[in-house]
């Protein structure tokens, strides 16, 4: 057994996290910053953080992930990181010529109390930031929240910095897609185009973290939200903040700064969440949902009705980020599946509240937990107590899946051992199809493998 | 290609201060006249670097591969998360129930309240919970950045808990990420604590005649498995490997070996040095990367023990193994001969792997380490002349004394006698002495320099790590990770050499790079405009 | 709902000729006064029908489930391809090396030259190749449409090859697709040949006391496995099953049984009849679909043997099994009670499965067969009055005589005695007598009629086959395949009943049909036109 | 073992086909006819053929497949099927109101020599075909060619019947997509739209055999080539006949009837075949390949370069239809994979010629066969003699895959036990991504399942 020390008996832990279902803020800030065109993320702290974040994002995307670091040593930790950051600005702009540097802090710089905004101001004052270049900054101490919080904080910083308040209103909306994959951002953009609704999306990592192979390393790939678009987002008529955990803060900043009304909606995963999103887009824009989208929807519903027998009643264990888990749980329930064990390391009361709403009675009978010690060790223990037919989560789920011989669908962050997540969306109706394809494949592969020979099916 | 031109291309964009500093870290090699290179100095802030931190070097590299220690990261969740199995240190527990915590990640997941009020209580509770859940032999605590800053005394906590448990060795590492200038500091810290808390805890001694330790072999891709098998074939007992496929029990017993063999000089020489001072165990540098070097290293062991039977057995094994490698080289070399490589990685791999490339008939155009010191480049002879700067001074230097009871004068006498005969001990010649004249050596290469280097030199294969991989590959050049082997390997020993030949042959000869350019990017495609009948007339230019 | 209205809705689009014909195939049931229904007549050209062909009935249904015959389709590739395992007849070979050809498809893959010059040579070669490759006990040849037309004499070829091999039974079937009006003709042809070439080939007799055959059970979804277990539990030996989980050896020995139990009257009554004439084995109709019917059928066997021990064992088993089914019914029935079903399938299933629905508290609104004859609707009492039309006349009626040596007068005497006591033999009451008054009976329902029926009645579940499945489901009504069980099952016996309860409860209560309508299809979504601040004001009507 | 009687030793067979890698013509004709909007296929023969074809198509698509049959009995077989067909026309048009009835023959009607064209003419003469309605017809005896030939013949009939010769030329091209999935037709249409090249595609089963779930059974789903479009195809400037086996005949008919020049090209599977197709589209239309397509291409090449180590040298066994196998083989070779065993039941010399061209030296060392007795029994025997790392083919491959424990990717016709083929294309660059996703998934799933615990990988 790969996880041979995990006992079936669940005991409360108050201090030890084992096999976390989250990581720390800065990587989220880095990911968000990569969704701005020409932006170079910068990690203000020890160089190890930056190295870890770049490595993990790289393994997830199999793409170059460029980011600077203030490379603290003990001296900087004692005397403050101002000098390191000033030096960094100088070097970053000289060597890599970014349009924007997006600084995020780390536990180190936060613990010693570096004031990045003041240091940045100093850099501007001292002329260290070239004209026309931008520095944005998010406070992302690793000991608060999770990687999702870090993403949210950087999004909020973008929303605070770029949008310009106008006295006119543009016939366009803002889409804050939340922490989803480049493929998902691409898919949401496609849906918006299909709806004929003009929009600004940020962050937008499509075209950045799924950059084509060209024989040339484009240091700033052509994707990402552009600065002019970001500026214009202040004149949009509405903001869709998708995913309360990752997008609400940015939506609120936009409202505060530019009076753009917003609504927090679920990331459009599954039928119902996508329905609600498109209904709202239609409502806000006056553009009807076109037949082409209606047909897409009909196709995925068709798969569900056709394949219902293989989905019905299947118990599922889920782990990952709240903005994904919430609509995913709703989707599974809509198909009569049974999400029985759910953990997310990301803290926040809303998660349990919303899950209770979605799950109804299943919430009481199921195991749902988020925040501290809502980890994969606990999830595994739950599974040992009530086995499931399917596990959905990031790559780390493969250990449990193998030990317990449970079909496994990779979804979430990070996925280190398969391709697909950056190219095939899980959002929208197309994404629902992908999820179905994956789930049915995993379940049926096991059936095919384990069926006695006389029960081996040709037709399914 | 002259260095001047390269310097121009590679560093001209740098601000003056950066240029001045980086210039000292890059030079054209002359093995006849090894020059001083800048190494083990601070990374310049804002430079995109390969380097990681002290925590990574301590927890990830040295202790990570040991399966039966519960390694608790004391800090916010990220550090533990990122060092959770993301390198490929393989381990093979004795049996299906024996301890293996490699697949687990343990963390105190510090929250802001812990930063404000201190995290010692949290740490104690976490250790207690780990003990209650697993009853492990040992629990190790790794400090992350904020721990040092807020002043948690992990060593005191460790002592207290160890005393309380009685049957569990608990020890801590002050390996905060900001200590030192790279992972290297973490190695040193790991060496120190392992030496203090573990090595020498078990004096039992098997009755086999040839007992050695292998130091600085981390079982990436199963390298240690290959070497274990090789040693066994030769009749040599591996008392402990630091730390590939290791158990803390092996470490405890390591001081009873007759000889320490060092693979990765950078990460582990401290342990070898300390063991020699305290226990009298001599050390010698070996290299099991490449068939020739593996043979040479085995012969070194034979020479050390001066046992005719052993020596003859070693020769038999070498002869047998070389059949495989010769055959493989003959098969793959036609595809690799004359091709070129660059290696920028680690603290010894950039050196060792040059031998493998040589066996493939490939030229190493440029190489450099990520976290090495000057001695790894220039050889240990420069040790006395290395200035200890503020960053290095932060790392504890243990004061070790001869163990009056366990010190082996006999081994030291043997060493002295063999040195008389010309055998080398306690030495490492460094990379530069073995590299070709005219090749380029660059320490702590920056991303910027790397891209320029690839652009100008266009090597057939580039060796580095995951952060570099896809940027280089976007340029149409295959990159071989030598941290994780791209989840291939093993590459050590003779079997490993065969694997490596095959892998490199694949990489430098694959067709897939030819797919990059779309035909319309080089041809003018449009000719007709819906003109009937003209379809047969192509306008390809 | 009156039939008149339905007639109107369901058939009004038909051209007059079609209307006149189809009208005779549809009627409102009155079990008290069973009316004549049109059945086993030609399908109207151009009508989209559920029916398949004679070849399908012969090769696919009756012989398909037998594992140790090499079934060679003589014809173009399609027929063999489509009958390759596309139904789910399960089989469980005795051990890992015993014969099982179920997963194979054998065909002569006739080409145009064979059509022109004849295919006998090709067929002979194919049989020889099959023999050389597999050395099977038996090879069967199935004729497809062109074979009959070009005049290949498959029976002569079979005789010749059989004589040549000596150790392999070779026999053919003139089951060209165009023979008869549906699969039913194929069943008859299969019955004839199996009777002629196989049954009676092995006179050995085990010494168990209660020996029966189960006829017309094809082990769809593992039904036969359940029944085998059930019979074993009761201490009854199943000599042969025709043909679920069967071996040709079982068939050869089948005439030694004491009683034939008929499940699917339509497909297999010919074999039962012929066995009775030749060997004196009586037959009685059973039904193992549904808990009540299963119990009743088992009791029938007990009554036949009149053995107190057997009868008491059967009662024990029934009591034990009914615990399971009662518990399951209690669990699932609240979800199914009062719901409605329609069944249009097969030659017995549309009848048998009504019992299962009844156990779920579900009403059968309409039912009909795909390829049955009038006796399957009205009961065997109408047999004498069925006019033999040209299509039926094409099917050979074997002239069977009493086997002077092997005919069992004892069994016939037992039968006569039991009939005195009121036990039924050689009879089938038909579907209509058991269906509710007012329910609809339609033979050979057309696609058009089916859609109208679903539109008007909106049953909660519809039972048919794969061709109907998705059209019905597109209308938002779940369809349960009763040919293949949708790759679920088993549904026979008590364990099967539990499975069926659960399955139907799932189908009639799933939420997924609620997903069909998009919210914008029922709500007017557009309200604002990029009007700021109005986002909270929804215009839902 | 599921296929326990398959011996390793290969012996020549001259008469017995075992486990065919093809089926018969009529099903192909039926499939092609479904790609015309408002068309009802009609099988002129025994009702069993129609039932089998409808069932197989239904199991493949999980969709209603409507088709009529002449329901021959012995009488019709002796006296000819004219009466049955005339009756059928009457009933089909009265009851199902199709715009078009597409008749195909069977071995039965061909053997007895029914002249469908004469019968149809008689029906027209007798006023049995309502005004404005169409009857088209293809001769598809089951004992000639294969299902692919049947498809080709029906396509040729469409091309003979509908297109109208004009003295003017339209700025549009014809696309004969060959026997590919609705998803593929959809994808090729998307590529054409992205190229801004107007086109007529036929047949086009998208929107027909992947019809949305609407709560209503649309007897003629809204997809399919329309009659006006088919008529206009005669004025197109060029015809792309994709797949020599399935589309050349129709291309030639269009040329003969309407002087539309055509080129037979490979079905755009994999990088090179897609490149060639788009280059030719660009050449013919004067429209450049847009950046968006170039980026798609770059993304799939990126996956290939990233994942090369898992693909390189992997031996593959393939079976299926020639128009698919040819570009698929080329694609695998381009990625340094080794297609070593290839069978197709469909006859035709071109297959071996083209394979030889594509495979070069690998053709001699590999096993390639098509036509009679090029069946899956032979393929399995080859595999027993030289094991492979992957099998690609239709659902019937699962028996070999399980017996030999070889990763298996479903591609081809029929796929009876998984979803996806009708929704996710294998053509174009998007299709190449799908193929990669599936292949890597299959290979890596096996690695994950079988790796000794110490070799179990987190990152791949």
From TrEMBL, chains A, D:
Cofactor note: Binds 1 [8Fe-7S] cluster per heterodimer.
InterPro entries for the chain: ChlB/BchB/BchZ, Nase/OxRdtase_comp1, Nase_comp1_CS, Nase_Mo-Fe_CF_bsu
Cofactor: [8Fe-7S] cluster
Catalysed reaction equations from the record: N2 + 8 reduced [2Fe-2S]-[ferredoxin] + 16 ATP + 16 H2O = H2 + 8 oxidized [2Fe-2S]-[ferredoxin] + 2 NH4(+) + 16 ADP + 16 phosphate + 6 H(+)
Domain Nitrogenase/oxidoreductase component: 24-443
EC number: 1.18.6.1
PANTHER family with a match to the protein in the record: LIGHT-INDEPENDENT PROTOCHLOROPHYLLIDE REDUCTASE SUBUNIT B
NCBIfam families xref list: nifK (TIGR01286)
Self-association and partners: Tetramer of two alpha and two beta chains. Forms complex with the iron protein (nitrogenase component 2).
Function comment: This molybdenum-iron protein is part of the nitrogenase complex that catalyzes the key enzymatic reactions in nitrogen fixation.
Protein name: Nitrogenase molybdenum-iron protein beta chain
Native source species: Spirochaeta isovalerica
Automatic annotation (TrEMBL), chains B, C:
Pfam families listed in its UniProt record: Oxidored_nitro
EC number: 1.18.6.1
Keywords assigned: ATP-binding, Iron, Iron-sulfur, Metal-binding, Molybdenum, Nitrogen fixation, Nucleotide-binding, Oxidoreductase
GO molecular function annotations of the record: ATP binding; iron-sulfur cluster binding; metal ion binding; nitrogenase activity
Keyword Transmembrane helix: no
Names of the cofactor(s): [8Fe-7S] cluster; [7Fe-Mo-9S-C-homocitryl] cluster
InterPro entries: Nase/OxRdtase_comp1, Nase_comp1_asu, Nase_comp1_CS, Nase_Mo-Fe_asu
Domain Nitrogenase/oxidoreductase component: 53-506
Iron-sulfur among keywords: yes
Family: Belongs to the NifD/NifK/NifE/NifN family.
Alphabetical list of PANTHER family matching this protein: NITROGENASE MOLYBDENUM-IRON PROTEIN ALPHA CHAIN
Subunit structure: Tetramer of two alpha and two beta chains. Forms complex with the iron protein (nitrogenase component 2).
Protein name: Nitrogenase protein alpha chain
Naturally occurring in which organism (per UniProt): Spirochaeta isovalerica
């Amino acid at each position: 057994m790969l996880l041979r020390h995990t006992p079936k008996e669940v005991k409360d832990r108050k201090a030890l996290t084992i096999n976390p279902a989250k990581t720390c803020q800065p990587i989220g800030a880095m990911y968000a910053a990569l969704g701005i065109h020409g932006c170079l993320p910068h990690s203000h702290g020890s160089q190890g953080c930056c190295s870890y974040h770049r490595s993990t994002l790289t393994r997830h995307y199999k793409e170059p992930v460029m980011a600077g670091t203030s490379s603290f040593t003990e001296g900087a930790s004692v005397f403050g990181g101002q000098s390191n950051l000033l030096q960094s600005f100088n070097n970053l702009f000289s060597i890599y010529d970014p349009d924007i540097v997006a600084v995020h802090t780390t536990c180190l710089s936060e613990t010693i109390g570096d004031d990045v905004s003041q240091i940045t101001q100093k850099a501007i004052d001292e002329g260290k930031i070239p004209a026309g270049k931008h520095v944005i900054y998010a406070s992302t101490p690793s000991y608060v929240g999770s990687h999702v919080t870090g993403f949210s904080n950087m999004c909020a910083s973008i929303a605070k910095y770029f949008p310009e308040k106008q006295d006119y209103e543009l016939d366009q909306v803002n889409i804050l897609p939340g922490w989803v994959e480049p493929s998902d951002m691409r898919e949401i953009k496609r849906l918006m185009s299909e709806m004929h609704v003009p929009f600004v999306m940020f962050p937008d990592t499509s075209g950045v973290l799924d950059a084509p192979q060209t024989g040339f390393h484009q240091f700033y790939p052509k994707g990402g939200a552009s600065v002019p678009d970001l500026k214009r987002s202040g004149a949009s008529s509405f903001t869709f903040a998708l995913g309360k955990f990752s997008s609400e803060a940015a939506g609120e900043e936009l409202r505060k700064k530019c009076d753009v009304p917003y609504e927090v909606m679920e990331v459009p995963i599954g039928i119902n969440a996508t329905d609600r999103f498109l209904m709202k887009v239609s409502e806000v824009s006056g553009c009807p949902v076109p037949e082409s989208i209606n047909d897409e929807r009909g196709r995925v519903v068709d798969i569900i009705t056709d394949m219902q027998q293989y989905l019905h009643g299947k118990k599922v264990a889920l782990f990952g980020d709240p903005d994904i888990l919430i609509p995913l749980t709703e989707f599974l329930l809509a198909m009569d599946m049974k999400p029985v064990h759910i953990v997310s390391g990301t803290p926040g009361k809303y998660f349990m509240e919303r899950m209770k709403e979605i799950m109804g009675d299943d919430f009481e009978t199921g195991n749902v937990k988020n925040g501290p010690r809502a980890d994969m060790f606990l999830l595994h223990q739950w599974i040992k107590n009530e086995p499931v037919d399917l596990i959905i989560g990031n790559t780390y789920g493969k250990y449990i899946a193998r030990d317990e011989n449970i079909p496994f669908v990779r979804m979430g962050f990070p996925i280190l051992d398969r391709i697909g997540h950056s190219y095939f969306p899980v959002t929208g109706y197309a994404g629902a199809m992908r999820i179905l394809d994956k789930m049915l494949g995993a379940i049926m592969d096991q059936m095919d493998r384990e069926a006695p020979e006389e029960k081996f099916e040709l037709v399914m | 290609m002259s260095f001047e031109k390269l310097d121009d291309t590679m560093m001209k964009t740098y601000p003056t201060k950066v240029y001045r500093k980086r210039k000292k870290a890059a030079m054209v090699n002359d093995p006849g006249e090894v020059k001083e290179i800048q190494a083990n100095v601070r990374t310049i802030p804002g430079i995109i670097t390969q380097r990681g931190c002290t925590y990574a070097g301590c927890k990830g590299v040295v202790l990570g591969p040991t399966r039966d220690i519960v390694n608790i990261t004391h800090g916010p969740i990220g550090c533990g998360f990122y060092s959770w199995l993301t390198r490929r240190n393989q381990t093979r527990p004795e049996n299906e129930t024996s301890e293996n915590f490699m697949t687990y990640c343990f963390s105190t997941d510090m929250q802001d309240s812990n930063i404000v009020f201190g995290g010692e209580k949290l740490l104690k509770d976490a250790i207690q919970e780990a003990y209650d859940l697993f009853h492990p032999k040992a629990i190790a605590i790794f400090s992350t950045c904020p721990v040092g800053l807020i002043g948690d005394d992990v060593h005191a906590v460790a002592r207290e808990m160890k005393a309380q448990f009685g049957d569990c060795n608990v020890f801590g590492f002050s390996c905060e990420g900001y200590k030192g200038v790279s992972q290297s500091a973490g190695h040193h810290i790991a060496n120190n604590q392992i030496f203090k808390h573990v090595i020498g805890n078990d004096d039992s001694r098997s009755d086999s005649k040839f007992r050695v330790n292998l130091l600085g072999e981390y079982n990436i891709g199963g390298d240690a498995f290959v070497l274990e098998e090789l040693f066994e074939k030769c009749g040599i007992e591996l008392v402990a490997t630091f730390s590939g496929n290791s158990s803390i029990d092996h470490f405890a017993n390591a001081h009873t070996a007759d000889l320490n063999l060092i693979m990765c000089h950078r990460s582990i020489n401290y342990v070898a040095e300390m063991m020699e001072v305290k226990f009298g165990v001599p050390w010698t540098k070996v290299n099991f990367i490449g068939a020739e070097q593996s043979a040479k290293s085995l012969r070194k062991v034979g020479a050390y023990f001066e046992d005719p039977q052993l020596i003859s057995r070693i020769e038999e094994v070498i002869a047998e193994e070389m059949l495989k490698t010769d055959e493989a080289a003959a098969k793959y070399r036609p595809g690799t001969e004359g091709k070129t490589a660059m290696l920028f990685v680690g603290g010894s791999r950039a050196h060792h792997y040059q031998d493998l490339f040589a066996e493939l008939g490939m030229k190493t155009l440029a190489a450099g380490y990520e976290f090495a010191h000057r001695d790894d480049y220039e050889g240990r002879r420069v040790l006395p002349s290395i200035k200890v700067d503020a960053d290095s001074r932060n790392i504890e230097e243990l004061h070790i004394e001869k163990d009056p009871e366990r010190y082996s004068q006999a081994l030291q006498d043997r060493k002295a006698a063999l040195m008389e005969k010309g055998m080398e001990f306690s030495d490492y010649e460094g990379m530069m002495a073995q590299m070709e004249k005219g090749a380029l050596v660059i320490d702590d290469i920056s991303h910027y320099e790397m891209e320029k280097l690839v652009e100008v030199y266009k090597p057939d294969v580039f060796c580095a790590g995951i952060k570099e991989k896809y940027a280089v590959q976007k340029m149409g050049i295959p990159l071989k990770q030598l941290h994780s082997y791209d989840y291939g390997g093993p590459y050590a020993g003779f079997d490993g050499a065969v694997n490596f030949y095959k892998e490199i042959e694949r990489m430098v000869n694959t067709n897939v790079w030819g797919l990059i350019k779309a035909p319309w990017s080089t041809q003018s495609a449009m000719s007709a405009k819906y003109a009937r009948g003209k379809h047969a007339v192509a306008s390809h230019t």
